[in-house]
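Hi there,

I know you've been waiting on this one. I reran it after we fixed the sequence typo, so this is the corrected version. Both the input and the resulting structure follow.
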Amino acid sequence: MLQFITNPSEKYSIAEEVQMAIEGGCRWIQLRMKNATDEEVRQTALELIDMCREHDAFLIIDDRVDVVNDLKVSGVHLGKEDMPAMQAREILGPHAVIGVTANTAEDILQYKGKDVDYVGLGPFRYTTTKEKLSPVLGLDGYKKIVQQVRDAGMDIPIVAIGGITADDVEDLMATGVNGIAVSGAIINAPDPMLYTSGIMENLLGVPE
């Protein structure tokens, strides 16, 4: 499972980034425009909706619950300082995908029994695409946190995020996470479509 997260780039528009990720085989897009206005996010999302629909990809938007609700995209990703997940669930209804950010097992366990669909756990290593970076986890951090969460009887999907490259996929998936999220490594690759395709091949090669 690969989630591509958009990030402003000097080389490409966000629509171009998403097009290349989709052509590389990614079917899960997160539109993240931290410093943009709601209207800018809305206009960009409108560019992406048909593209995602055409390729059976699902689109979630970082933080902007009202925009998600207005445009009826698949869901929202909520950081620690964004709207509380249960408030977003009330607004978006039962079918929306709601993801949350976590850095520790405690962050994840607070959602036990709550209607949250996945956790973005990170960062794996230092990354320039995220402001206000939490402590870096590394492979050992993921192993420990995944183990703690599973031992507590919680089977929520955990997606690794933060500074991940194609070379990390096999080792990361071996920690027990259910997927990865990639941003800068795809955008900055010489050929983003080919790079995405390589990640997808690596993911498919990982035993279940």
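Quick highlight: The chain has a mean pLDDT of 95.

Best,
R. S.
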